[in-house]
Amino acid sequence: RKNYFYPDLPKGYQISQYDRPLGMAGYLEVLLPEGAKRVRIHRLHLEEDAGKLVHAGAAGLAGADYSLVDLNRAGVPLLEIVSEPDLRSAEEAKTYLQELRLLLMVLGVNDGRMAEGSLRCDANVSIRPRGSTLLMTRTEIKNLNSFKFLQRALDYEIARQIRLSQAGETIVQETRLWSEERQVTYAMRSKEEASDYRYFPEPDLVPLAIAPSEIATLRESLPELPAARRQRYEQLGLSPQEGAIIAADLALTAIFDQAVPGARNPKSITRWLLGDVSAIMSEHKLALAAKPLFPEQLRCLADLVDSGELTANAAKKILPQIMLAGKDPRTLIAELGLAAISDEAALRELVTRVLANYPDQAAEYRSGKAKVLIFLVGQVMRESQGRATPALVHRLLQEALR
Fold it and tell me: pLDDT for 370-379, tens place per residue?
């Protein structure tokens, strides 16, 4: 038990695994711009959460000098993961937390909703002179619940400590909070030492022991982890950046993994997912998990464009109806008359008409202004209501102009 004043724990003490944690001496590998880096995990242990204090003044009630307490999460078990001091910047800390959050979500341990308190970060900050191995006095920033807040708070606190050090002032060991409104950290309380907690063994609970055989069973049942997923995506032809973006979003991952088998080109699925599909999901706050047919429909749409049966512009027109109303791509194409025109004879007629309507531009192209071709292609596409196959229009125009 840890016994000291908890205004948000009515029983006055907190139960925590102390000298018998669940795990020790692990690591998490994160991918940084300069390469992979192992961040050592000192320990992970279970403890019970406290409640939540809401300070009326900080909440915007001017002049209010009282606090409210929300006890809804008091006593709820949480997992605390303590890393070693291996992180060297706010950017590295953010990347580490993002990777940790993704891992926990993939494992089903956590829903990743930081704004709701499902995942919070306490960041310890200490500086050292360049070339020295000795870390100076540290401070702790409590309860950071977004990557943006974490990075801003760390950048500010690092600069604050450097400023104090260079001015010859003392860095006080303390717990601080981040004010997003003021963009500063501020003191919450002096940092406790182990003696302040007044630890003693919890008499009502036996130590939690997990048998090696159970650990082995759990290890065998693990799903595909984020690093392995990113590697698989690169083997499919995705760039490291594309693979990382899709692997970091479980909704996109689910769609991609169902749409790719049997697709003509996994890269096409990627382009649609990271472009128009993501934009529509964001605009309509759309959860595609409720539309189980969508991966198959996306594969069909991408294949139709890749095969030349449908132009990219036409595909963009019908994508919202596919996503929002769940309509079949081929049915929509037939209903709206959007099938691509790839008949050379029909397209030659459109090319001839456009060149007759724009003789000046045709003359400019023949005189060496190659960029005019883009304009002429656009006019043919307009005449065909966006249904002409662009590559074929491009070739037929060049032939006619020669």
Answer: 787 788 877 8
